[in-house]
């Protein structure tokens, strides 16, 4: 059976005003324990991993599109999508124009699991954050711990940059990174411009915790002290340093390379 639709046309509607706050403010998303997905591609990625939206706001102009109809057919029958005129939805979104839909979903709280992991300390740039998450997902490192000082990992900008990576990773927000490292049984590596050992001299085939710090300040002294090894990424050219997202990607895929070689 098709979903019943209800149309919201007033910008003063309380439901739409609340949606606007959820899109704009991390504190409101955290208070409601939700995330906001803008566009069909993010919702598709979420549905693939079993995430069920609590609310879905449909762009009235997109109702007849086949990809939107197919996506709506995958929603539970208990969910009644709300239709919003395109001009009004365009005022609510963080995008430059109105998306096909906006979905509000429960914020994930995955259990902590063993294995290789990524520790992110006070990463602030949404683009960096999203790129790091994409690289982690692609490399098979599924446990990601984020300090309290990180940008909101479920902000609209990070979600867009992550391209669906959020829904295959286990993201642990506001984590005590020192505690995570203290309880980690594998190798603990941090990249450092003055690292004494090359990344490419490290054996990364077992469980590894990779630690990356703030774009300007780097990894804090407290976490540096907990690392087994401070490694450098060789740079024979003229750059002084690498962007943190690039450094994380190089480290993650050096691990992939070593695993591939060990398998023959």
TrEMBL record:
The keyword Methyltransferase applies. One of its GO terms (molecular function) is RNA methyltransferase activity. It comes from the Bacteria. InterPro entries: Alpha/beta_knot_MTases, MRM3-like_sub_bind, Ribosomal_eL30-like_sf, rRNA_Methyltransferase, SpoU_MeTrfase, tRNA_m1G_MTases_N. The keyword Transferase applies. CDD domains: SpoU-like_rRNA-MTase (cd18095). Residues 13-102 form the MRM3-like substrate binding domain. Residues 118-253 form the tRNA/rRNA methyltransferase SpoU type domain. Coiled coil: none annotated. Keywords: Methyltransferase, Transferase. Pfam families: MRM3-like_sub_bind, SpoU_methylase. One of its GO terms (biological process) is methylation. PANTHER family: RRNA METHYLTRANSFERASE 3 (PTHR43191), RRNA METHYLTRANSFERASE 3, MITOCHONDRIAL (PTHR43191:SF2). Belongs to the class IV-like SAM-binding methyltransferase superfamily. RNA methyltransferase TrmH family. This is RNA methyltransferase, TrmH family. It comes from Pseudogulbenkiania subflava DSM 22618.
